[in-house]
Design a protein that fits this description.
This protein is α+β, with helices and mostly antiparallel strands. It is 40% helix and 19% strand. This is IS1380 family transposase.
């Protein structure tokens, strides 16, 4: 609803401010997102897989329109559903959603209620279909499957919210998987807050490994994970699927002793010492010995070495140092999670119902991926790592006025927009894409 309030600026009383500008939008860059959406077949793929329990008769908004509206609100940074009440007549949003008006917050809330586990699985399948299309376009020789868990704060009596000892607070503890080479969000699974890091990880990751082995046999998968995922079930799942892995091990007395035999704690020197070694090791819970790479570091003038251990099935041509270099690149995972949280509200799961929060998690994943695919496939090389906050500044948040003619809609963007050259560059690159 338009506000009739008006104020004068104190520094200059001649300047008046109100919100009655008419058919204006502050999110005109969504037209670029929509252009890429159509090139990729993003919304069409989601529509094909969206199957909800819908008993409505003659609805004003289709489920496909509601899904698209929520994703585009996330792209613009409007994480709260009630933002729709202000955007209801926005000329850009109505064009990308393909509806005369946007749905209100209560309509969006009822939309979430129509999801069930099957509908969530279908959206996961849609995400995989799009991942496959992008993977074929990029011709990636490898898939680096980075596993991690993260924390999502909860408030009040939210279903399945619980205390997590590692984070020392109450919330959810979702599993996430990204492609470490491209930043693509492969999969997410919402879990109660008290679940251990590796709980359910084999059931989570096995379908991904099976899928890429079946559909992309020429792609070499690699699983990377920290010590929270150091479980023999995961090693065995990777070995069964002929997938490489590098997973950090927690230090124990046996590993410590074996490492100290390689590099005893003798008299300190004035220089930092760093060694890379390996040995075969079999824990009591393992069915066979496995290769363990060891990094031993002693800072200058220190007495004791600090040892770090990684279990791997990488072939012998990978030296222990290369094994550690492969694992250390996993640090980008934290950036992906931060981007998903701060940019796409992955951590704003505020519903009382656990199942609705699973839907919100999936929508954040889809909004993240649409942005990541656009920047990696259509941005200039120097801007491919651009963060979502910067993308919003340079593409999305540009003012425009809608002017209607007999046959056309003219979106007249601000003449003083600083990033016009970048805006046109990205649009031109999108229109030149040929994605099969």
């Amino acid at each position: 609803m338009l506000s009739v309030e008006e104020k004068s600026c104190q520094f200059n009383r001649k300047i008046k401010i109100n919100f009655t500008g008419g058919e204006l939008s502050s999110d005109s860059g969504h037209l670029i997102f929509k252009e890429f959406d159509e090139k990729l077949g993003f919304s069409k793929t989601l529509t094909h897989h969206l199957v909800l329990n819908d008993s409505r008769k003659s609805p004003d908004y289709s489920n496909e329109q509601l899904l698209r509206q929520k994703i585009y609100q996330l792209l613009a940074g409007y994480s709260e559903d009630d933002a729709a009440d202000s955007l209801i007549h926005d000329p850009v949003f109505t064009q990308v959603v393909e509806s005369p008006t946007l749905a209100s917050q209560p309509t969006l809330s009822r939309f979430y209620d129509r999801f069930d586990p099957n509908a969530l699985d279908q959206l996961g399948m849609a995400n995989q279909k799009l991942l496959d299309k992008v993977h074929r376009y990029r011709k990636n020789p490898a898939l680096i499957l980075d596993l991690d868990s993260t924390h999502v704060d909860t408030y009040g009596k939210q279903e399945s919210s619980d205390y997590n000892a590692h984070y020392g607070t109450i919330g959810f503890h979702p599993l996430v998987a990204f492609d470490g080479a491209t930043g693509d969000f492969l999969k997410a699974k919402l879990r109660p807050g008290n679940r251990y890091t590796s709980h359910g990880v084999v059931d989570f990751v096995r379908p991904i490994l099976e899928h890429y082995n079946e559909h992309f046999p020429e792609t070499t998968p690699l699983v990377r994970a920290d010590s929270g995922f150091a479980t023999p079930d995961l090693y065995e799942a990777c070995e069964t699927e002929s997938v490489y892995y590098v997973i950090r091990l927690k230090t124990n007395a046996v590993l410590q002793r074996m490492a100290e035999e390689l590099h005893p704690n003798d008299s300190p020197t004035g220089k930092t010492q760093c060694y890379y070694e390996e040995f075969d090791y079999q824990a009591k819970s393992w069915g066979k010995p496995r290769r363990v790479a060891v990094q031993s570091i002693r800072p200058a003038n220190e007495l004791f070495f600090t040892h770090t251990f990684i279990v791997t099935n990488l072939v012998e041509c990978f030296s222990p140092k290369q094994v550690f270099q492969t694992y250390q690149k996993r640090g980008t995972m934290e950036n992906y999670i931060k981007e998903a949280k701060s940019g796409f509200s992955l951590d704003q799961l505020s519903s009382h119902k656990f199942e609705i929060n699973e839907v919100r998690l999936m929508l954040s994943l889809l909004a993240y991926n649409l942005t990541n695919w656009m920047r990696t496939m259509a941005f200039p090389k120097r801007q491919k790592a651009m963060r979502i906050e910067t993308i919003r500044t340079r593409i999305v948040k540009v003012a425009s006025k809608l002017v209607r003619s007999g046959r056309s809609l003219y979106f007249k963007l601000s003449s003083s927009f600083v990033y016009q050259a970048f805006f046109w560059n990205v649009l031109n690159r999108i229109q030149q894409l040929h994605i099969e």
